[in-house]
Specification:
Elements lengths: L2 H29 L10 H14 L7 H13 L2
Length: about 80
């Protein structure tokens, strides 16, 4: 085997180790979350997300900020 191949194999093993360690840490963080997060009412959740994200309904909660936001969006930054 050439030096380039050995270097590549070593580098690949180190990167796989770093990736595995990162996944292990993230899995540990997921284990710290609250148990029993409700995953129900999927239709309502998707509908609300679409309304807020694409319909920008929360802009109407604060009228002055909403108007400024609309002006910025219409002007094009």
């Amino acid at each position: 085997m050439e030096t380039k191949q050995i270097t590549f194999i070593v580098f690949m093993l180190v990167m796989l180790g770093v990736f595995g360690y990162t996944i292990h840490r993230l899995w540990g963080f997921i284990g710290l979350t609250k148990a029993g997060f409700p995953i129900d009412k999927i239709g309502e959740r998707i509908n609300l997300t679409l309304k807020v994200a694409f319909g920008q309904t929360k802009i109407l909660d604060r009228p002055i900020i909403g108007i400024i936001h609309a002006l910025v969006c219409l002007k094009g930054y």
